Amino acid sequence: MSGGRLRRSGRALRALAGGALSVAATFLGLLAVTFFIGRVMPVDPVLAIVGDRAPEHVVERVREELGLNQPLPVQFVRYVRQALRGDFGTSVLTANPVLEDLRRVVPATVELATCGILIGIGLGVPLGVAAAVWQGRWIDQAARLVGLIGYSVPIFWLGLMALLVFYARLGWVGGPGRIDVAYEYTVPTLSGLLLLDAAWAGEWEAFGNALSHLVLPAALLGLFSLASISRMTRSLLIAELSQEYVLAARAKGLSTARIVWRHALRNAAVPLLTVIALSYGGLLEGSVLTETVFAWPGLGLYLTNSLQNADMNAVLGATLVVGTVFVGLNLLSDAAYRWLDPRTRAGA
């Protein structure tokens, strides 16, 4: 018994060490990609700082201070050290440390993407289940139509039309921005998540105002994620409903609802979780157009403005954050996969 425990402990330690090495290698590769992107871009970071008309000796002095006159391997080692310390340099656009800017804009994107993915899950999973159970009927056709709209309609056009109808014409929701100016400084910043901070402080008028601004962009992102989640739920559930254990459950007299929700969907949830995690990551890094249309002060708008102003420190810092988010979501989905599916733990 003791020998078996030792073997299991050894396998667990090897798996943990292998996972740590994999994460370290992935993060190092991410740093390498962002570093070389910054070097091959046709933008001189020194000229972005001092301007095109700066004297040559000023350009050379700044280049030396930034270490850009050194060989690329030396620059890369320095870049890795600075990134591990959270030092991404100073933004040319805001004159603030990039890390400080990221702490300000990332919570806005997290709040928007989280609401979007919750809408996508809350509507997409039941819609996919209904489409799979009543395959070929009107609900299945409706689910396909919703998915087609979510995939094919340009999100910037849909956002503009939504603003025109629901904000400008009907006045049902708040307009561009995250909150009205009248409420902007009434909510203390604790987590950076405006709804959570307003609720914690008891500022319910500010909470309602922030929610009215959040509804439209979150609904658009929810439609985008709903398209993929409903389609994958339908495909996975159709595959599960054709398995032998479903036939056996029907022979035992179990109801369709119990078979679907208690058995088939539970097995389909394992790969579906990976789809949801990737969809969430896509909303975090792919909400550039949505944030631009709605003037949402998040990571996407910050990255867009940085690209337009050749602010390479900010661009690389934001890119590194997006890559880190994807790595983290993949790790979380793998951990959840192991927890939900005991078969993946059989060799551990």
Automatic annotation (TrEMBL):
Keyword Ligase tagged: no
Locations listed in the record: Cell membrane
SUPFAM superfamilies according to UniProt: MetI-like
Gene3D superfamilies: MetI-like (1.10.3720.10)
Domain spans labelled ABC transmembrane type-1: 106-333
Assigned keywords, A-Z: Cell membrane, Membrane, Transmembrane, Transmembrane helix, Transport
Pfam families recorded: BPD_transp_1 (PF00528), BPD_transp_1_N (PF19300)
Ranges that cross the membrane: 12-37, 110-133, 145-168, 210-229, 268-294, 314-333
UniProt keyword Endoplasmic reticulum present: no
Topology relative to the membrane: Multi-pass membrane protein
GO MF annotations, alphabetized: dipeptide transmembrane transporter activity
One term under GO cellular component: plasma membrane
CDD domains assigned to the protein according to its UniProt record, in alphabetical order: TM_PBP2
Family as reported in the entry's similarity comment: Belongs to the binding-protein-dependent transport system permease family.
Protein name, UniProt field: Dipeptide transport system permease protein DppB
Species of the source: Piscinibacter sakaiensis
